[in-house]
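Usage

Read records sequentially. Each one opens with the input sequence:
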Amino acid sequence: MSKVLSPLAVELASARSSLSFFKSEVQYLAAKVKLERIDAKSAKVAARLARRDVAIAKAQAKLDRLMAPVGAKAIKANKKPSKAKTTKFATVVSMLETATA
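and closes with the structure output:
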């Protein structure tokens, strides 16, 4: 003899089975969200490391340019000027100026 269930008991049994299904679905979705967060965090770390490597390479290139040997034109332009040479004409002009003053 099978037991005859009331409509309310049938509804309760179906609600319990759907509750267990939704609990497992919630656990599954929570695990997926956790994995997405971990993936996003690792991607963020990788991007930060890539930016750091680019900055280091840029600074190294700048340092290499600064440490590179200087060209001949730059050396010549950087020299101190020699003492001015006075010509006979300049000497005569300065004598005339002092004589007229």
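Summary fields computed downstream for this record:
- The helical segments are 7-67, 72-78, 88-100.
- The CA atoms of residues 45 and 65 lie 30 Å apart.
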